[in-house]
Design brief:
Layout: H1 2-19, H2 46-79, H3 90-122, H4 129-195, H5 216-248
C-alpha cells in the first residue's frame, strides 16, 4: 500500500508539471566594461600604474587638442575680415568660444581624475619607494604641463571674448556713422531744394574716419594667444611621446 500512495503522489506531481508554463531562465546582465583600470582594481603594480597614468594623461591631452582645434577654426574665420570684408557673426564666434570653454573645463576635470588616481598609487603598499618616486615625477610633469595649457587656453578664450565684444561695439559705431551720413545727405538735399540755385553744393561729410569691421590690435592679440597655446601644446605632445619612448626602451 505505501508503494501505491507514492505512485499516486508522483502521478499528481507529473500532471501539474506538464500543465505549468515554462519559466524563462533569468537574464544575467553583464556589467559594462570600464574605461579605467582604477574601477577594476584598487591595488597597483608598476605596470598597471604606468598604463593607467598614460591612459588618463592621454585623455587630458585629447581635451587640449580639441581646444587647439576650436581656436584654430575661430582664428581662420576672423583672419580674413577687414574694413571691406564682412566680419563673421558675433553669435557664431560666441558659440565657438563657449565650445572651447567647455573643453577647457573638461580638461581640468580629467586632470583632477588623474590626481585622484595618483593618490591611490601613493598609498598602495605594493609599490615600493622607488616606483612611487618615478610615478610622482611623471605625474608632476603632467600636472605642470596641464596647468600651463589651462592658463594659455584661458588667455586665448579671453582674447577671443575681447575680440567679439569689440566687434559688436564697432558694429554699433558703424551703424551710427552710416545713420549720420544719411542724415547729412538729407539735410544737404533740403538745402539745395530751398536755395534753388545752380551753385555747386559741397559734398556731405562722411562724419569722421571709416570704422573698420575688425581692429588690427584685437586680431593681433588673438593671433598671439592662439599661437602661444598651439606651440605649447605641440611641445607637450612631443615631450609625452619622448617619455613614452624612453619608458618602452
Amino acid at each position: 500500500r505505501p508503494f501505491a500512495v507514492l505512485a499516486a503522489v508522483l502521478a499528481v506531481a507529473s500532471s501539474h508539471s506538464a500543465a505549468a508554463p515554462e519559466v524563462a531562465a533569468p537574464i544575467v546582465r553583464r556589467r559594462p566594461p570600464h574605461a579605467s583600470l582604477l574601477r577594476q582594481r584598487q591595488r597597483w603594480n608598476m605596470t598597471t600604474a604606468r598604463e593607467e597614468s598614460r591612459t588618463e594623461w592621454g585623455i587630458v591631452l585629447r581635451r587640449y587638442q580639441m581646444v587647439d582645434l576650436e581656436l584654430s577654426r575661430l582664428l581662420i574665420e576672423v583672419a580674413g575680415a577687414g574694413a571691406d570684408v564682412a566680419p563673421p557673426s558675433a553669435d557664431d564666434l560666441e558659440a565657438k568660444i563657449a565650445k572651447l570653454s567647455v573643453n577647457l573645463k573638461a580638461a581640468r576635470k580629467d586632470a583632477d581624475v588623474s590626481d585622484d588616481t595618483f593618490g591611490t598609487m601613493e598609498t598602495d603598499r605594493r609599490l615600493d619607494a622607488e616606483d612611487k618616486a618615478v610615478l610622482y615625477k611623471a605625474h608632476m610633469e603632467q600636472r605642470q604641463a596641464a596647468g600651463a595649457l589651462d592658463s594659455l587656453g584661458l588667455a586665448a578664450a579671453e582674447a577671443a571674448e575681447n575680440f567679439v565684444r569689440n566687434l559688436r561695439a564697432r558694429g554699433q559705431a558703424k551703424q551710427q556713422q552710416q545713420q549720420q551720413v544719411r542724415q547729412q545727405g538729407a539735410r544737404a538735399r533740403v538745402a539745395t531744394a530751398a536755395a534753388r540755385t545752380s551753385a555747386p553744393q559741397a559734398a556731405p561729410q562722411s562724419g569722421g574716419k571709416r570704422v573698420p569691421s575688425v581692429a588690427a590690435a584685437d586680431l593681433g592679440a588673438l593671433r598671439r594667444a592662439v599661437s602661444a597655446f598651439h606651440v605649447r601644446r605641440a611641445a607637450v605632445d612631443e615631450a609625452t611621446r619622448m617619455a613614452a619612448a624612453q619608458a618602452s626602451a
